[in-house]
C-alpha cells in the first residue's frame, strides 16, 4: 500500500559519482542487497545522522570518518551499503564487523580506511555476516557506473514497496549543475528492517563547512520533518557528496547562485522525504500538517508533531472522518505555554473547520467529509501567536500498519 | 476486549457521600446517563484536571468553584455528570450551557451555585442538550444513596466495557476509615467519547490543602502514569472528597496515620487507573514499563513514556513478539542527555533480554517468547545512572484499537 502513483523519475548522472548494486545473498537469494558508491578524489562530503543513543555501528564509523577527513577527501571515497542486517544493538562485535568490512574494501580499492563510509539496514541485533558482504564487494565495484542510480535505489530497499529517487538540474555560471539522490525507508524507524537512508550527490564544488550547513538545513526541512510512527531509527543516515566535476563552485560570496543551489538541493531532499511518507507502512494518506502564526518555528513544529503523532487523528484520517475534535484536543495538549484557544483556527485543505474554541459557523460535515476522502490532505492550524510556521508530513494509521509491524518477525 | 477478569469489587459506603444514577435519555434511550453525587456540608474537596488548553467547559467551572470554595464546603456539595456529550470545543455557548445546568441544580437543592461541580463526557463539539440534563435532575436526586456506588460506576461509562471501582477500609484511631472510588475511561483520551473521570470519597476529615496534596500525589502515580495512546483528553478530571463523617482526622501532625491513609488512598487511585488500562481500547495486554537506576524520577518517566508510546513496541506486544530491538531503539531516542548504552539493561518480566548495548548472552528467543505470551507483562529497564525509578502502565496496539477509533463516528 502506498499513496499516489509510483513514478521513479529520470535520474541525471552526477559527474564523478558512480554507483553499482550486486546480489550478494546477504540474507535472501537473488535480490540486489549490496550497493557500492564511489565519489572521485577531491569530493567534499557532509552527513546527518540519527540522534538515537543506540546508533548502529556503521553510523559511528561514518561520523568518525567524516570528522577524520574534515569533510574533504584527498582520494576516492566509497560508500558501501548492505541490507538484511542493521548491525545495531550488536555491541563491540558490531563495531569490529563494520570495521572489518571497511578494511576489506579499503584494501581492494587502495584508499585509506577513513575514506570508506559503511551503511547497514535490516534486522537489529543479529550479527552482520561479514563474509557474505566482503564476498560481494568485487562485483559491486565492477558494476560502478554514473548511470547506476536506479539499480542502487532498488538495492537499498528493504520493506519499501517502491524505489525512491529525485533529480534536478540547474544552470549556474553558464554550466549545468546536477543534484541527484535516492532514499529508502517506510517509517521513521523500521526497527528490524531499520532505517531511513538517503544519498545525494552533486557535481557542484562546495567547501566542506558550507556543504554541511546546506545538508543540515535541507535535512531539517525534509527528513527531519516527516514521521510515520514517531520512532527514530538507530541507523538513520543521509550523506551529501559534492564532486565538483561540473566546474561550478558554490560559495557564500555568490549569494544568488548559493540560493538557487540551496533551493534545488532542498527540493531533492524534500522529494526523497515525501517518497518515504508516500510509501509509509500501511499508508493510505499523504498528510501535510502545516502550523502557522506561531511564536517560533520550534513551537510550530511542536504543535505539528503533536498532531502528526496522535494515533486518534491518524485513525480518523484512515477512516476519512473529519474529526476536528481530535485535532483541537491535540493542539490543546501540545507542549507550548499559554495557548489561547480562542485564537486557534483549523483548516482541512481549504475548508475552515474550527475557530474560536469550537466548530466554525460556516462548517458543514459534508464539506469536511469531502476533503477527508482525498488521498492528499493538508491540516492547517493557525495559532494567532506570531508569524513563524512549520510543516510536518505524515501518514494515517491503518490496519495494515498494525499488520506489518505485528507480523514482521513472526 | 479487555485484560483480566471483570471483577467489580465490594464497594464500602462512605458516610456522608451519596450517589444516584438515572436514565435521562440524554443521547440514547434506556441507559443510565446522568449521575448525581452529594457530599455533606463540611466536606473538603480536592481535584486534578486535564492540562489540555482546549479543556471542556465543565472542567473550567469545576476549577473555578474549587478555588471559590477554598476546598471547603459550608453547605452540601453536588457533583453532576452527564455522558453522551463532552461539552468541549463548544466555545462560549458551552460555558453558558454548563453554567445553566449548575444553576438549575443549585436552585433545586438550595445551595449556592459554587457548590455544584459539573462533569461531561461524550462527543466533542456538539452542544450539550441542557433541557434533557435538567429534566433528569429530580430523579437523580431522588435516587441518592450511600450504596449507590455500583449504579454510579455504570452511569458514567461511555465506551468502557466494564464498570470500574475500588474500595478500601483501614483502622485509624480505633475507628474504620473508608476510601471508595469509581472511574471511567478506555484511553487517555476518547476524543469523542472524551475523557477519563475519577471520583473518590473518604469519610476521613482532611484539611483542604492536605487533601489537595494527597490528591495530586495519588494522581501523579496513578492516572498520570497510564497511557493508552498518548492523547490527553479535554475532559480528564478526578475529584477527591473527604466528608469527615468517620470522626477520624488525618493531619500532618499524626505522621503514621497520614502515611497509612495516603498509602490506602494511592491504592484506590492505582486500582482505578489500572482498571482503565485493562479496559483500554482494543487492549489484549496489561503492561507495566518500569524504568530504574535513573538520575531522577522525571528522567525515568521520560524513558518509560517513550517505550509506552512507541507504536512499534505496542504492535510487538500485540503480536507477542519479544522484539527487544524496538525497546532498545525507544530507550535510545528518549529525550535524556548523554545516555551510555553500555549501561542499559532490559528485562521482560524476569528474563534479561539485553545488556551492554546488545542482546544478553543468556537470552534465548524461547524464553522471551514465553514471557510475551502472558497477558500481564513488565518491561523493566535499568539505566545505570542513579537510583530514581518510575512506572508507567500501558496496553498494546491492536487491530481493534484502529477499528474502534476509525469506526467510531462513522
- Biggest sheet of chain A: strands, sense, closure? 7 strands, mixed
How many strand segments of chain A? 18
Provide the number of structural domains of chain A.
Answer: 2
Radius of gyration of chain A over all CA atoms, rounded? 22 Å
- According to CATH, the fold-level topology of the largest domain in chain A is L-amino peptidase D-ALA esterase/amidase
Largest binding interface between chains: A-B, 68 and 67 residues
Structural class of chain A: alpha/beta
- For this structure, the quaternary state is homodimer
Q: Give me the CATH architecture of the largest domain in chain A, please.
A: 4-Layer Sandwich
Mean pLDDT of chain A: 90
**Span of the ends, CA to CA of chain A:** 20 Å
Q: What's the CATH C level of the largest domain in chain A? A: Alpha Beta
Task: List the strand order in the largest sheet of chain A.
Answer: 10-18-13-17-14-15-16
Beta content of chain A comes to 25-35%
Question: So, the CATH homologous superfamily of the largest domain in chain A?
Answer: L-amino peptidase D-ALA esterase/amidase
Give the helix level of chain A as a range of percent: 25-40%
Shape of chain A: globular
Low-confidence stretches of chain A: 188-194
What is the count of helical runs of chain A? 11
